Structures are given as structure tokens and as C-alpha cells.
């Protein structure tokens, strides 16, 4: 599964057909139009910052932010938080239905 998250996300030519576009709700002035790609593969979850203005970062166990270089696939551990713009989400595993 691949998700593009942003203020008004758009699929790029390099993105697969099955990309899900997820607009960020609320006041998104800190979030770029297409901010971050979230994907899964057999190794787990990864994120790719799409060259956003305010960046994407992993939140380390001590709370410090580890910036994700734009265009680089960065692995995310289960339970880890990802900061994007002025928001964040936590990666959690859910049993298959």
C-alpha cells in the first residue's frame, strides 16, 4: 500500500497507479501540497519526504527529531512517530481482517 499525504496531494509520474491520496484536514499551512509518501513492503513501513517546505522527521525515543532527507526512503519502526509539518502520526500494526 502506498499513500500520499498532504494539503492537496497529487500523484507524480513516478508513483504507481494504486496510490491513495489523503488530504490533511484542518489548518494545513505548515503542510506541503504533496508532503510525504507512506508505503509498506515486505520489510515494513517506510516514508519518503516529497521535498516538502517544512520537512518530515522521525521522532526518536528521546523525543528528538531525526529529519528525513527529501526523496530518500526511511524505515519506520512500529510504535514510532513521524512528524510532518506541524503534525504527526504513529505507525501501528493492525491485524489483517
From TrEMBL:
Keyword flag Cell division: no
Top-level taxon: Bacteria
Keywords, ordered alphabetically: Phosphoprotein
InterPro entries: FHA_dom, SMAD_FHA_dom_sf
Signal peptide segment: none
Domain FHA: 3-58
Protein name, UniProt field: FHA domain-containing protein
Species per Swiss-Prot/TrEMBL record: Tessaracoccus aquimaris
